[in-house]
Structure formats: structure tokens, C-alpha cells
Amino acid sequence: MELDVSPPIRYIAFLRAINVGGHTVKMDALRTLVAELGFANVATFIASGNVIFDAPAAPIPTLETRIARHLQQALGYAVGTFIRSASELTAIAHYQPFLPADLAGDSTALYIAFLATPPSDLARQKLLALRTPADDFRIQDREIYWLCRTRMSESVFSGALLEKTIGQPATLRNSTTVQKLAAKYAVADTS
Fold first, then answer.
1. Position 13 pLDDT exceeds 50
2. CB–CB of 148/155 below 8 Å?
3. What is the domain range of residue 57?
4. Which residues on neighbouring strands pair with residue 43, listed in sequence order?
5. CA atoms within a 13 Å half-sphere pointing along the CA-CB vector of 89
6. Of the candidates 90, 111, 140, which is a domain's last residue?
7. How is the chain split among helix, strand and coil, in percent rounded to 5?
């Protein structure tokens, strides 16, 4: 029997329901919970549920399920888990769904919604029908890019409306956070 000696892959888990909605989890506790699954080099990035870890190559849905089940058992509530490899994260961070001029406003922000699977054609149509002068969307694989030309709190669009519209869970991150994560952790990818 031959041993698998391939180097581990760097993954980034974007967790939903961490330090929002009354669910408070200390980052050292979160790192410990993820390390209990046998993953190496576990780190967190800001206190909003971004967990970086190294693991042998595995199907992403399998990793998502393992982490989500473990966190639900430990924390007592469901934690949506959306994983990308470091190379996927680099591509996401460098993808330009809008022109630079579209991002120039003082209150303008770009958010990235992470999904487990690409939205269906019907979900895409429903989402794109919600475009307004303040909110615009681009869909690329398992990510939705939301250009918000006002403060998020002033927009009629929200993460809850996004999930309802596309019919599946998602978690949002500011594109600045995603770019910082990619810059800091993507260099270690060995996939």
C-alpha cells in the first residue's frame, strides 16, 4: 500500500452566524474547534468567521459538511460553512465584476456572497431582476458580487433577501476583507 505524501492544501472557510445575531464565539475557541478535526495551521482572520487551515486534498462539500456538523454540535446552532481553496480565493479576489469607476463613490462598497453551489438559472434571473441604481449584482460560479452604491444599512437589499431570492444559504464579506485574506494566505497554496 502506497502512502499519500501529497502536500496539504490551504483552505479558507467562510462561516455564517459567527459573532452576529447574538452568537458570540472567541477566535481562539473557534481555532480549537476546527483543529479538533485534524486540520493543521489553523488561523482566523478578523472576528467574523474566516478560518484558514491546511488539510489533505478532499472534496470541498465533504470539508464543509465536516466543519458545519462539528461546529453545530459544539456551539448548539447551525453554522453555514463555505470553503474555498487558496487558489480559488486568489481568483475571487482578483475578479473584477464592475468597472473601477463603478466603485468610486464615497458610500460605495463591493460585497462578495459565498455559496455552496452556483445559483440556478431561475435564481440568477430573480436576483438580477432586483437590480436598482443603488444595488447591482454579478454572478461568477459560486460567488455573487454585490455592488452597493449606498451604505448597506440604507439599501433595500440585504443578506436575508439574497438568500430568499436565490433559495440557498450564503455568507457575505466585504471585498476588502477577501483581498486581504488572499494577500495574506493564498501564497501558501500548494494545489
1. yes
2. yes
3. 9-90
4. 52
5. 31
6. 90
7. 35, 25, 35
